[in-house]
Design brief:
With 384 residues, this protein is of the alpha/beta class. It has two domains: 198 residues, Rossmann fold (3-Layer(aba) Sandwich), CATH 3.40.50; 122 residues, Response regulator (Rossmann fold). The strands form three sheets. It has a seven-stranded mixed β-sheet with strand order 8-7-9-10-11-15-16. Strands 3-2-4-5-6 form a five-stranded parallel β-sheet. It has a four-stranded mixed β-sheet with strand order 1-12-13-14. A hairpin with a 2-residue loop joins strand 13 and strand 14. Helix 2 packs across helix 13 and helix 8 packs antiparallel against helix 9. The longest helix is centred in the N-terminal third of the chain and has 18 residues.
Length: 384
């Protein structure tokens, strides 16, 4: 079997000292950035800008320039002005927009290619390439992991909210097999009752009480020991699944995990997995699940990036800024390889790409990430 060739962006991105200045030579690569550099979300926008500055400081090519423009938030007039200004400078490649709600709007600039950190869709969308960690890539990694653990009764859980239809469409399109789905309320008080139904909690409680009554009036040693064992349990009987995939994050995820523990789901028999995690350490202190597994970007590279970012800017980066760091390396590689960037077609490569986020591929007009599986255990993120 032939070894897969992997292009390593970290080899392409080597040390440099470029800055945001006007290009004066003919054969130059000018990359635009549209982000909220002022206003309520300026911290996010500037984090993306700083991450590009880090990438520039490692590329060492005086022909590469970043031209940032403030796009505002939900401000079509400001976004239009930013793109038109970049276009007037003959810029054909732009990092952004951040919000996928702007995709329909930027498509009309069809002579410009946009590289967005959005994770909504892995498919190339006209002149837009989204390099965010897509739900498809995460579910693909989890499904592969679950199969390796020899689990075959999986339940995919997700909340009833504005993203429910989006998730349902993704699941149907992915054709993951005979996997059950379960929607739950965003209201924690309603959620507990729904989880009780999912786990057949009431019946399992009754099973335990009935079993205990069988030994209560018996005085032989074996019956006494069995009763003592039963007294240590909260329910009796297994749930009808052996793994769960929770498509949620933050406090809502923690509420689901708490409800699963409350309904006495056996953690030794049921595999707990989730998505959308960026090494949130608060999960250590508010989560009673001993081992929670999830796919993610490369933790080692993420920590290195965060450390270097802090050393340079005395603050911590927004999570998605590492995506824009890789975006610049990707753009630079495409430019060096093709000698130009005219369309999304210049980003179709047979080989896989290795960046800070990990290994990913761009072929068949889609972005797929090969994500690592991590687990939370003993207040650490452990690569599985």
């Amino acid at each position: 079997m032939k070894k897969k060739i992997i292009i390593i962006l970290s080899y392409i991105i080597f040390s440099a000292s470029s800055n945001f200045i006007k290009a004066e030579e003919l054969k130059t690569l000018k990359v635009g950035l549209i982000a909220p550099l002022t206003g309520e979300f300026s911290e996010l926008g500037n984090s993306l800008l700083y991450s590009l500055q880090l990438a520039l400081s490692e590329i060492k090519d005086e022909k590469l320039f970043i031209v940032p423009r403030d796009s505002g938030v939900d401000n079509k007039e400001k976004l239009t002005s930013a793109i038109q200004d970049l276009k007037s400078q003959d810029i054909k490649i732009i990092i952004g927009p951040i919000n996928n709600d702007d995709f329909k709007f930027v498509k009309k600039f069809n002579d410009i290619t946009f590289i967005s950190p959005s994770n909504i869709s892995p498919e190339f969308d006209n002149n837009i390439i989204s390099i965010g960690i897509s739900l498809e890539s995460q579910l693909k990694a989890i499904n592969k992991f679950i199969k390796k653990q020899k689990k075959n009764k999986t339940v995919i859980m997700y909340p009833k909210n504005q993203y429910s239809d989006f998730i349902e469409k993704k699941l149907i399109k992915m054709k993951l097999g005979e996997i059950k789905t379960f929607q739950y309320s965003a209201d924690p008080q309603v959620l507990t009752g729904e989880i009780e139904t999912l786990t057949n909690y009431s019946q399992r409680k009754k099973n335990l009480e009935l079993r205990k009554k069988m030994f209560e009036d018996k005085e032989d040693n074996q019956s006494i020991k069995e009763l003592e064992r039963l007294e240590q349990l909260y329910t009796l009987g297994d749930v009808n699944f052996d793994s769960v995939i929770i498509i949620d994050f933050g406090n809502s995820l923690k509420s689901v995990l708490t409800s699963l523990v409350y309904t006495d789901v056996n953690q030794k028999k049921v595999l707990f997995t989730t998505v959308n995690q960026w090494f949130d350490e608060s999960i250590f202190y508010e989560n009673s699940i001993k081992d929670l597994y999830y796919p993610s970007v490369n933790y080692k590279e993420y920590k290195k990036f965060t450390k270097k970012y802090f050393e340079n800017f005395k603050s911590y980066p927004n999570e998605i800024s590492i995506l824009t760091y890789d975006a610049l390396g990707l753009i630079y590689y495409a430019w060096k390889k093709n000698g130009k960037i005219d369309s999304t077609g210049d980003f179709l490569f047979k080989s896989k790409i290795k960046g800070k986020i990990g290994t990913f591929s761009l072929k068949d007009k889609r972005v797929d990430q090969d994500l690592d599986i991590y687990k939370t255990g003993k207040n650490k993120f452990i690569k599985f």
